[in-house]
Design goal:
Blueprint lengths: L6 H69 L6 H29 L3 H31 L2 H9 L1 H80 L14 H142 L4 H119 L35
Helix pairs in contact: 1-2, 1-3, 1-4, 1-5, 2-3, 3-4, 3-5, 5-6, 6-7
């Protein structure tokens, strides 16, 4: 087993070897079992089943012989219908022949030696001869009524010769099958003996391998563990001068290396602690002096912080007042914005009213134009009436006076309509000027509303900033108060530190006394006077895959 493997690797390798031995035993046993199963199946298929088929051939042949003799005996009866008996016998002979053919084919397929195949072929020929030369001839003679001829054929030399040859062939086949089966059984027995011997050898070898692996594992584990137990006892007694010889790469070797590292590191640490105790004693005196100076400075800082706190409180009051004024200004600007919006709405209503007046003036102009046309028509009618009155002479004088008055009235109406038209034109012009002026006023009001909205946003931002500034100053004030509390606490802690320094000096002396109880390794240690950090070695990576942690 390799020295460079860890314990996990050694254990895995050992159990893998045992598993390989077990797998070999199982594989060999399985191989022999499968082979014996195959031989058993072959023994059954080639011999047992074949012998059943040969028995079927023998039975079929003897049934044919019995069938022919029964046919002959039944045909001797006076009342027998020979033709019917012959027909039934031939049908049964055909069925027996079919069974013989199937059994013969099965036996022939299972046999592989040439001698047996030749015996089967000769027997098949003899069976066919018996069916044709004896069976068919006897049936034909019985059907023809020649009972004596049929008897002579059944008991004749040819029939006896064929029967004897078939019987000898069947006996020879049975003898050969039995001999082959016996040889196959002997082969199976030899295979079983070989399997038993092989399995016994492999199992014995596996036992030897397992025993050797156990001895090797115990050797690799017990010796170094005993050495580390002795080292641990020395550690318990305060003797750090321990030497471990185990150098393997497994977990035990890593543990031994870790113990060596612990021994070295503890020696270094205790030596450094001894030097550090001297430094602590010297530093304790310096700490006492520093604590006194820190206490005096903290008192001065406390006075300055109180003055800063008072100034911040005044700033906080002024900032709060600014925030209130900004909120008031924001409310006033909001009112002005609402009023400006109302003025804009009123101006829009006035513009709509002027548009309606303009439309009405246009309608009035149309009416006046109609009046002017009516006056013109009336004047024409009056003129026509005057002409007609002049034609009438004395009788038309009164009508002429009326026509003259009507014409004068039409002229006056026309003048009045023209004057009204001019006045309406002037009014429309002034209304247009008023609409333009009102539009400009509405635009100016809209600009004022937008400016007021912008001013409102600025004032709102100023309000938010003022509130945030007030909150920030309040937080600063709280922080300064907390700093003052911390300064007072620092002053008290400095006084306590001075007292603790004296106690620390006493603890350093006690620490040196405790370190003196250990027996350290004799080697040059690094200077621990503050130039190099204290190294414990606890962070170093150990050989293998383990890391020592203290």
């Amino acid at each position: 087993m390799g020295m460079h493997l860890n314990m996990r690797g050694k254990l895995i390798l050992s159990f893998l070897l045992l598993a390989v031995v077990a797998a070999v035993v199982g594989a060999v046993g399985t191989r022999y079992i499968v082979k014996m199963q195959a031989l058993g199946a072959d023994l059954y298929e080639r011999f047992t089943a074949t012998m059943n088929d040969m028995s079927a051939i023998s039975d079929g042949f003897y049934k044919q012989k019995i069938l022919l003799r029964e046919l002959y005996l039944n045909a001797l009866r006076p009342e027998a219908n020979r033709n019917a008996l012959v027909a039934d016998a031939k049908q049964e002979m055909a069925g027996l022949e079919e069974g013989l053919i199937m059994s013969h084919a099965t036996v022939e397929a299972a046999v592989d030696d040439e001698g047996t195949l030749k015996i089967l072929a000769d027997m098949r020929t003899d069976i066919d001869r018996f069916g044709t030369e004896v069976g068919e001839e006897v049936a034909d003679l019985i059907a023809a009524g020649n009972m004596e001829g049929a008897y002579n054929v059944l008991t004749g030399t040819k029939a006896v010769e064929i029967e004897n040859k078939i019987a000898e062939a069947i006996d020879l086949l049975f003898a050969q099958r039995e001999m082959s089966a016996q040889k196959q059984a002997e082969t199976n027995a030899r295979l079983a003996a070989a399997a038993t011997t092989t399995m016994s050898i492999i199992i014995a070898a596996g036992f030897v391998v397992a025993a050797l692996l156990g001895l090797l594992l115990s050797r690799f584990i017990s010796r170094p563990v005993k050495e580390m137990v002795v080292a641990a006892q020395q550690f318990a007694e305060g003797d750090l001068n321990v030497e471990l010889t185990k150098k393997a790469k497994d977990e035990i070797g890593v543990l031994a290396e870790a113990l060596r590292t612990v021994s070295d590191n503890m020696s270094d640490v205790l030596a450094d602690i001894r030097k550090a105790a001297d430094q602590v004693a010297a530093g304790a005196a310096q700490l006492a002096a520093t604590s006194s100076s820190l206490s005096a400075g903290a008192m001065q800082q406390a006075g300055s912080i109180e003055e800063i706190t008072a100034a911040l409180r005044q700033i906080e009051v002024k900032t709060g007042q600014n925030a209130k004024n900004a909120n008031t200004a924001g409310g006033l600007v909001e009112v002005v914005s609402i009023n400006a919006t109302k003025g804009t709405d009123c101006m829009q209503k006035m513009l709509r009213a002027m548009d309606e007046i303009n439309v009405s003036a246009a309608d009035i102009a149309n009416v006046i134009k109609l009046i002017d046309e009516i006056s013109f028509q009336t004047n024409l009618l009056a003129l026509n009436a005057a002409v007609e009155a002049a034609r009438a002479g004395q009788h038309g004088k009164g009508f002429a006076v009326v026509a003259e008055e009507v014409r004068n009235l039409a002229t006056r109406s026309s003048k009045a309509a023209k004057n009204t038209t001019e006045l309406i034109g002037q009014a429309l012009q002034k209304i247009g000027d008023g609409i333009r002026t009102a539009g400009e006023t509405a635009e100016a009001l809209e600009d004022i509303v937008k400016s007021i909205e912008s001013l409102t946003a600025i004032i709102n931002d100023f309000i938010v900033a003022s509130n945030e500034q007030a909150a920030g100053i309040e937080q600063i004030t709280k922080a300064i108060v907390q700093v003052a509390e911390v300064v007072h606490a620092t002053s008290a802690a400095a006084e306590q530190g001075a007292a603790a320094s004296e106690e620390l000096a006493g603890q350093a002396d006690l620490l040196k006394e405790m370190v003196g109880r250990f027996k350290l390794k004799k080697k040059i240690l690094p200077d621990a006077g503050g130039k190099e950090p204290l190294q414990t070695g606890c962070e170093e990576e150990l050989p293998g895959d383990a890391v020592l942690e203290i």
